[in-house]
Specification:
Layout: H1 11-18, H2 23-29, H3 43-54, E1 65-71, E2 83-89, E3 97-103, H4 117-127, E4 130-134, H5 146-160, H6 162-165, E5 167-177, H7 179-195, H8 206-217, E6 227-233, H9 252-257, H10 266-276, E7 302-307, H11 313-325, E8 330-335, H12 350-366
Parallel strand pairs: 3-4, 3-5, 5-6, 6-7, 7-8
Antiparallel strand pairs: 1-2, 2-4
Helix pairs in contact: 4-12, 5-7, 5-8
Amino acid sequence: MEHSGIECGSQERIEELQRLLHPQVRAFYKQKLNHPPALCAPVDMLRKASDITFNDKVHRESIAGWRDLQIPPDDKTCRAGAIPARVFWPAADGRPRPLLLYFHGGGFVIHNIASHDDLCRRIANAADCVVLSVGYRLAPEHPWPACMEDGYRALLWAFAHVQELCADRSRIALAGDSAGATISAVVSMMHRDYLRGQLQAHPRWQALVRRTAQENRAGCAIEELRIGLQILCYGSFGCLDSEGRDLSKDSDSIRDFGNGGFVLPRSSMEWFMRQYVPKGADEAHPYLNPGRAEDLSGLPKTLCLSAECDPLRDDGEAFARRLFLSKTPVLCRRVRGLMHGFLLYWYRFDQAKEEIGRIGWEIRQAFATC
């Protein structure tokens, strides 16, 4: 983006950039943009505040059916407990439909199944697919890689229980927003690595390997599991630019939109990462920062959504470019005038509602010939 010569991060520069926002966005946020909440409260208080904002059930999309369930632990040796999940059905005709596993956003720290209930209902209706919303473990109680382990466990369980879910085992997709987009990308990578025999070589993932063996013994051939589509909405991927800068921490979009006056300031991103990434973690690990993977080949067809006024925009678009260069079919779409997290406001922003409709169309098209 061209700069006007006004100092980056100055109030004048912020106000200039805010003119890029869609009028509906500016009207909704009003003065909140210039006074972001301080992330100094205990995590449980932040979660309660988030629940008050997003779990109010006021804008509930009607759906043919839904049910809460628990994905059981892998085995008695697994320290991780059951994973809560919620399944949504767009119709009650008993016809197997595509299955979409959805991973909610929230910086790996906040949000839950309830916060994304309305969004998942709307996607299920728009795509005419079964949606399984996964309540993975959150940091700081469960730092990386807990959420990735839960994501892959959920995928294996869903594939083994497609009949119970009234879903088609040959039409499976992953999707997520923000942190959930990162989880989706990593789960796709983990399954690719499993099929290549690479996941089995790492001691850290042996519980997941035991789970695949358990499902195989039960007659579910995990080797037949294929992810047909992944939908990555304004995620963080840790891509590096030509100078070695981490674009999830330092980029033009972070300098423009991460200095206050927009959703997700840099200080918030840094706080979330401190909760999520344990000390000593290898930041080059592809299951932590998938944008740093040496090999991105063999991954599913991908839809990447970025928001024009999102600090993470450049990182997400760089990941899409890397996928393209790895011969992965990819469509990257930048949504003008919107900020990070816009999908949760489908009931306020016309563009968000339109994007959900387009997501539904992409899912229908991806599986139309299956």
